[in-house]
Write a structure and sequence with these properties.
This protein is mostly helical. Helix content is about 35%, strand content about 5%. One of its GO terms (molecular function) is alpha-L-arabinofuranosidase activity.
């Protein structure tokens, strides 16, 4: 609210928030956050002790329902480890969810899906800043996965047994520096080309908006050169 000039200080923001019914603050990285001013607001009479109790009650009720105050032995999830979380059954379910979440806009001449038996003797080119960079594959607010469970497009396609060549064309999504010669060399010798483009949190995320939906930097040039 301070950033939008609804209030003029963290103290005013704390008073307005608590009075409006807010009981949670997302203040990662702020030592002196908004709700740290609640004691001052209480001392000044801007909020009441009963109001604070009313705001805190549902928080602790939820935490109690989640079992946060129970002994670890009572928590059915405390015994789970990677042998369960990353079991073949769970990994297959994750794969099924990923496959079913894709949006296929066009499939000219039945190009997809790529099947291992159809790629024998084929030369496959995987290009673009998202082709083999695990760091840029996850969006905002995503968890930090264990590297051993990350598969880039290049890694996944190499598992099909095809002869795979790769070039990023540009090292990161902003794509300010683009190596056209390297791209043309890799694409020119390929039977099938997979172009991996996008934005990622380096380009757009919370509090980092864009004026348009165009591909950043030279990514459009990369795509056009690959098609040509």
């Amino acid at each position: 609210m301070l950033g939008h000039r609804y209030t003029r200080s963290f103290l005013e923001t704390a008073v307005a928030s608590v009075n409006a019914g807010l009981n949670l603050e997302l203040s990662y990285g702020l030592r002196r956050n908004v709700f740290m001013h609640i004691p001052q607001a209480l001392a000044m009479g801007n909020i009441t002790l009963q109001m604070l109790r009313d705001r805190v009650r549902p928080l602790f009720y939820t935490r109690m329902r989640l079992g946060e105050f129970d002994p670890p032995a009572m928590n059915p999830y405390s015994s789970l480890d990677l042998s369960v979380v990353q079991s073949p059954e769970h990994r297959n379910l994750s794969l099924e969810a990923a496959v079913k979440s894709f949006v296929l806009l066009k499939n000219v001449r039945g190009t997809l899906p790529l099947r291992a038996q159809d790629l024998s003797g084929q030369h496959l080119a995987v290009v673009g800043p998202f082709a083999d960079n695990p760091r840029v594959l996850f969006g905002d607010y995503a968890p930090v996965p264990d590297p051993q469970y990350i598969y880039t497009p290049r890694m996944g396609l190499e598992m099909l047994g095809a002869n795979v060549s790769f070039t990023a064309g540009c090292s990161e999504p902003r794509c300010w520096q683009y190596s056209r010669a390297e791209l043309v060399k890799v694409v020119g010798a390929a039977d099938i080309v997979v172009v991996c483009l996008g934005t990622g949190v380096d380009v757009e995320t919370e509090a980092r908006d864009r004026r348009d939906l165009s591909l950043p930097g030279h990514q459009l040039d990369l795509l056009q050169d690959a098609v040509q």
